[in-house]
Design a protein that fits this description.
Elements: E1 2-4, H1 9-19, E2 28-33, H2 40-54, E3 57-62, H3 65-72, H4 76-95, E4 99-101, H5 106-119, E5 131-134, E6 137-140, H6 148-157, H7 174-182, H8 193-222, E7 223-225, E8 229-233, H9 245-260, H10 275-285, E9 292-294, E10 300-303, E11 307-311, E12 322-325, E13 330-332, E14 337-341, E15 351-358, E16 363-367, E17 374-375, E18 384-385, H11 386-392, E19 405-408, E20 411-414, E21 434-443
Parallel strand pairs: 1-2, 1-4, 2-3, 4-6
Antiparallel strand pairs: 5-6, 7-8, 8-11, 9-10, 10-11, 12-16, 13-14, 14-21, 15-21, 16-19, 17-18, 19-20
Helix pairs in contact: 1-6, 3-4, 8-9, 9-10
């Protein structure tokens, strides 16, 4: 296993706990230098000595926090959190260790809950869970029932040395202010507020585990992942209790973010998902949301009549996605033309393109190119990249976002200057029963 180790009291206590049940050669210590304290060099030396004495492996990584802040414009704490998680995922894959053990204890859990509740976040307002799965890593937090006072008492009783990070006393950092200024005031109401909150958290964890199991079952049945979108089908929504909708909404957003960034070595800052975003998504799940709903980092969700789709953000698109009902005209003034079906009253200069769709199709989607879009040429069993098709048709990169592409269920049907379906360049599905539809394009 991998242990995120700072040589502070929490990680020192956790290491002693792990060594009682795990052979030393199975443990890898990861130390992160945040570049703030000159004492970091002494801590590194102390960890090297401790690792040699106990027969442990250890790695050290200085975090590029300043560069991350310049790139994303986030706080020091947010940058450090994202970078630590990114490198822990990297080391997990590098060493082939699926479990990453963290030293979060009861006081950390209380502080995190207070921060999330006061910020109005709708993302995982529940307390930490002891085991969670994300990015192909199992995150383990075995100290959630242990308070900071208990940890310090154990270290003193067993004469275990550890380091003190003086920056943890700086109340200019939000978490430190909650720890040193806000939470001590709770003792006026209940001197044992930690114990009271621990009882509350225990109940919440049991509920969260049961809810998560049901939500995961629902998502595995109705959720589909692609390179640039996550789709949740409304088929079967009638059988889902409204109680689960907020939990499905939060889970969809967090899964979408993790899926969109699964190939990133350095994770960008997590979406600033609030209860407002979750409420909007729940409206979409209840089929009440019309059109597009913006999400953080330029992502958005759309209700297309059959499913709710969360789409990866696009930088300055030439135009936005449109759902085109078969038989209903669509005007695209930002592109300078309209899309019509054979309605008997077409503009004289309309140009027709025949496309093939399954007999039960009711709509197609017109949208710009997204990274990861693929298409299936006739006669081939594997998909190909749309950007390679654009390149072969000499579409310049800066014009890709302005080119309207026609999709049916995320399979490319047609794009101006790219393919001509009636000549057999593309077909939707070799085994589907197909009908012909003619789409007419006319300038506005």
């Amino acid at each position: 296993m991998i242990l995120s180790y700072s040589h502070g009291p929490d990680s020192r206590y956790l290491l002693d706990l792990i060594l009682k049940a795990t052979p030393p050669d199975q443990i890898i210590l990861i130390y992160f230098d945040h570049g703030l304290r000159p004492e970091a060099k002494d801590e590194i030396e102390a960890i090297k000595i401790l690792s040699a004495e106990l027969g442990l492996k250890c790695c050290f990584r200085k975090l590029p926090i300043a560069g991350y802040q310049r790139k994303y414009g986030v706080s020091f704490e947010a940058a450090a959190h994202s970078l630590r998680k990114s490198f822990l995922i990297h080391f997990s894959k590098l060493f082939g260790k699926k479990e990453v053990v963290l030293g979060h204890h009861l006081d950390d859990d209380i502080e995190t809950m207070m921060l999330k509740l006061f910020r109005g976040t709708g993302s995982h307002w529940r307390p930490f869970l002891e085991r969670t799965e994300a990015y192909g890593v199992t995150w383990v937090r075995p100290l959630l029932e242990i308070s900071k006072a208990e940890i310090l008492a154990y270290l003193d009783a067993n004469q275990l040395s550890y380091s003190i990070d003086e920056t943890n006393a700086d109340v200019n950092y939000t978490r430190n202010w909650v720890r040193h200024e806000f939470l001590p005031q709770a003792s006026r109401i209940n001197s044992d507020y930690r114990g009271a909150l621990f009882g509350f958290f225990s109940i919440q964890r049991k509920q969260a585990i049961a809810i998560s199991a049901e939500v995961d079952r629902i998502l595995s049945e109705y959720c589909h992942f692609s390179e640039n979108f996550v789709e949740f089908s409304k088929v079967g929504m009638a059988s889902i209790s409204p109680v689960f909708l907020p939990h499905i909404g939060v889970r969809l957003l967090t899964l979408a973010w993790a899926y969109f960034h699964r190939h990133f070595r350095i994770l960008p800052p997590y979406w600033g998902i609030s209860s407002v975003h979750v409420s909007r998504l729940c409206e979409g799940l209840e089929s009440k949301m019309l059109g597009r709903c913006s999400l953080p980092t330029d992502a958005f969700s759309e209700w297309n009549g059959k499913s709710l789709v969360i789409v990866r953000g696009m930088k300055k698109p030439g135009f936005y996605s449109h759902r085109l009902e078969l038989g209903t005209p669509l005007l695209l003034p930002e592109l300078g033309f309209g899309v019509y079906f054979d309605l008997g009253s077409l503009p004289e200069d309309a140009h027709g393109i025949t496309i093939k769709l399954p007999a039960d199709a009711s709509c197609v989607t017109v949208r710009p190119y997204l990274d990861g879009d693929r298409y299936k040429p006739k006669g081939l069993l594997i998909d190909r990249c749309v950007w390679k098709l654009m390149k072969s048709r000499h579409v310049l990169p800066f014009k890709r976002d302005s080119l309207p592409l026609f999709f049916y269920e995320h399979q490319l049907l047609w794009g101006p200057g790219l393919v001509s379906v009636h000549e057999g360049a593309l077909k939707f599905n070799e085994n589907a029963q197909l009908d012909d539809y003619t789409i007419y394009l006319a300038p506005l």
